[in-house]
Structures are given as structure tokens and as C-alpha cells.
Amino acid sequence: MAQTLTVTSLDEAFINLASKVIMSVQFEVRVSGSLDEERLRGALRQAVETHPLARARLAPPRLASTRVTWEIADTADHLALEVTDEPVGLVRDRLQSRVPDLARSPLFHVALVRDPGGDYLMFNFHHAGFDGMGAVRFMTSVARAYSGVEDIVGGPPIEQARDLRAIAGARSISDVIPRAQKLAQDTLERRRVTRVASDGGDPAEPGYTLAGVTLTAEQTAGIVASKPEGATINDVALAAQALTVLRWNEAHGERIGDSVSIMMPVNLRPAEWSTEVISNYASFLAIVVPTSVSRDLAEATKVVRDRTKKLKENGAAGWIVDVLDRGNLLPVLIKRNLAGMLPLVQHQFIETTVLSNVGRMNIPSFGDAGDVTEVWFSPPCFGDLMSPGVGLAGVGKELFVTFRGIRQYLSSDAVQRFADMYVETITGR
After folding, report:
1. What is the average pLDDT across 284-296?
2. For the whole prediction, is pTM greater than 0.85?
3. Which of 65, 188, 189, 304 is 20 to 30 A from 73 in CA distance terms?
4. How many CA atoms within 13 Å lie on the side-chain side of 322?
């Protein structure tokens, strides 16, 4: 009999969002050599067996039930690996534009792309079951299984690990106050939020189009050297995204509002197991940058730094647990219909764009297939107007930046031009 896990309030919110947008988390690596197909299939099966949520599927909800549940089978229902030598960009766009079926496991699509310069292993993880860190952890398991290295799983048992209220819920009024203040401040500051100007999109064409750029070791070192005191690379990346949006809209003659609001996903895992346990722990904070900000990157970064520093100190990211858990007494079918309210509030409450950073990582070697030379990651666009989104991942001394646009609003060429403008902004060249 399959094990069951009650969905968390965060899982459920992302399940409901999937009725409006494609909730795909992109995570892919490139290796220096060539991956053996059969060994890779075996490694995928082993990784799925290691992590319960990877082989989860949604149980059909009953009409009046207030909760949906994950069913955890011993094996995946249908673990399919696409193998192709098509152009990388074509496969990437196609893969991330598909919706993993929550009614059968696993909660991802996967493709192996053959390339003379080194193969790509691409995943589309459904965000209801995986966040960025979960994607990193799963890829780590695949690499270890492929190379025959022991994969020791950390963190508490899955049932305990998914108690979001215990992990991030408010415990006292001192927790509630900064969270409430943050939500109130966001509501005021986002009354006239800037929207990214559309360019070449096709309203009849669904799905995503992605562009990737590599910030070289030299470029990355320059960014680190020039960042203001106390600022992080993530602060610089957020500031560069805000300035790029302003530059883009100015070039297109598009309206600029009072602010650029950037959704910044936050990992709710405790520090003791911050890189363990596959599940969805993605809260988010709105980093609201006034459009009156200096167009100088260092000055804009100081504005972002001051905002993110305060949010890190007061634990405001836990707000999403407090808010979502309040609705748990509503029937499942009613809560799903609440997703239909998104367009009514989008112009006021949804951010300009999203930027997610999984940090600098050390994915294990794939044995005789070689070391990981590239890592590409991007979050979904959480609303119809939140395009393009940006994902950052670091390997060695390089940074890999992925830009994800919604085809209905931005063409492939437009996303690439936005990416080029971002690189100019963040490097100063």
C-alpha cells in the first residue's frame, strides 16, 4: 500500500497556481563527456527511490475534503527519459513548456541532449513538489548514483520535515509584527508597479522561451570587487534586474510606474539541513525598488542591500506559512478556484518579475562522463505579466544566468536582447 503525505499549504498554493501558469522549475547540468543512457536510467531510478516526493502523485480529491494528499508509491509510475541530439535551445524551451502530470509519478520530465562539447541533462520539476534547492539535491543523487558513490540523505524524516508551521510559522507576536508590516508595506509600494514591455510575443503561442548567458570568471570577479560593502552577489543581481527593466521600458517607450517589484524566493529549510530534503520550501519576499533609484548599479545595490538585510534579520519570509495555513478549512475544490482570482489582483499585488539564486554549488562528478561544467536554473514565471524571470547558479568561478520569457509577451529574440541588456548592466560593459 502506498504511503500518503498530506500536502502542505505551500504545495497546495502551487498546485492551484498550475491552473494558470506552467509551474516548471528548470535545472540542468552539462558534463564534459558523454552520458551512458542505460546507466543514466538506472541512476534516475535510484534517485527516485531515495527521495519520496520524487515519486509522489496526487490522490484524487473527494468533493468535500479539505485536504489533498500525496501518494508515495514504491516506484515511479512512468519514468521516461527523452534522448535527443536536437539543438539545446529547442529542447530546453519545449521541456520547460510542458506540465508534469501531478496524477502520476515522478513529478518531473527529463531529457538527455547529446552534444559534441558535452552532454546536457535537463529536468523540468513541478514546483508543487520541488523547489530550486530540491532540484539541486535530486541532481546530486543522480550524479552519485551514476558514478557509484554513496548518497547519504540528511535532514529529518519526511513527515517531520514537511511541518512548515513548526519550521517557519510565527511563534509569538514578535514574529507576526515584522511579517504584517512587510505585507502592508508591499501593498502600498506596489500600487503602480512597473510591467516589462512586451516585444514580439504571440498571444496564440503558449509556453516559455529561455536564453542563457555565462558570466565568466573575470566578469564575476569584477562584480564581486565592485559591490558595495555589506552587499551580496544576490543584491547586485536584484539591482541589475530592476535597472534592466527600467532600461528596457525606456527603450520601448513603455510606461514606468512607481516601483519595480522583484519576487525573491527564499529557502525555508532550517540552516541545519538547508540543502537536504526534497519538497517545496519556497517562500518569497517582494524586493520593491523605487523607480526614482539611481541608474548607477552600485547606488541601486545599496538600496536593495538595505532592504534585504532587514528582511533576513526579522525572518519575514515565514509570512507565507501564516497566510496560507489560514485557508485550510476551505474545501479543496473551492481553494483551487481561488486561483482564478489572480487576474483580478495581478496589476496591484503580483511582482514585476522574479529572480531566484540557488547559489554557488558543487555538483558531484558523473564519473567517466566527466565533471559538471555548466549549471542552468530558472524559476517559473508566477503570473502572466511576470516575464522575463531570472535564475542564477554558480559553478567554479563562473555564474550561469537563465532568462525565462512567456512566449505570449516576448519572442525568443526579445528574451535574448533582454539578457544582453542585463549583462551590460551588471558588468558595466
Report:
1. 92
2. yes
3. 65
4. 19
